[in-house]
Amino acid sequence: MNWWRHSNQLEEAVYADMLIHVVDASSEESEEQVKVVNSILESLGAASKPVIMALNKMDMVKDSLRLAIPNPRGRIFEISAATGQGIDEMLEGIREMLPEDEKEVRLFIPYSDGWVISYIYQNGKVLEQIHGESGTEVKALIKKRKMEPVKGYIIISSQLE
């Protein structure tokens, strides 16, 4: 196979936020193909992009012949487009890697609900934190899909003034 001719197809990777590299796991040349694609991506300046590697046709691979292909820039999913095996897990992995919309909010958290601050640190970015007599006021960026548990704590103006 002429690998050099595929480098033109990979040039668009430079503009992507994330790459999905589908590998024919049933091919005897799959490990070499991965090396070539990685080399081309490196030469194009796209080697730092996060990559989901989908090892396709796993329904045709015997357990004893499973591939040991590393993917230091992301996760590896064993899938079968024919049977649907692993597709849901791969889609969830893609969702986790996509950049998310965030919303800046101001919240007042009573000291009795300290779990909310931990939740914000896990699911957003704290921009400002002020401790008051009855609780903590937090200005934060929170992922929109993670907003539901903290909606009741959102305030319009400061509670500490």
Automatic annotation (TrEMBL):
TM ranges: none
Occurrences of domain Hflx-type G (ranges): 10-102
GO CC annotation: cytoplasm
GO MF annotation list: GTP binding; ribosome binding
Alphabetized InterPro entries for the sequence: G_HFLX_dom, GTPase_HflX, P-loop_NTPase
Protein name according to UniProt: GTP-binding protein HflX
Originating species: Acetivibrio straminisolvens JCM 21531
Lineage: Bacteria, Bacillati, Bacillota, Clostridia, Eubacteriales
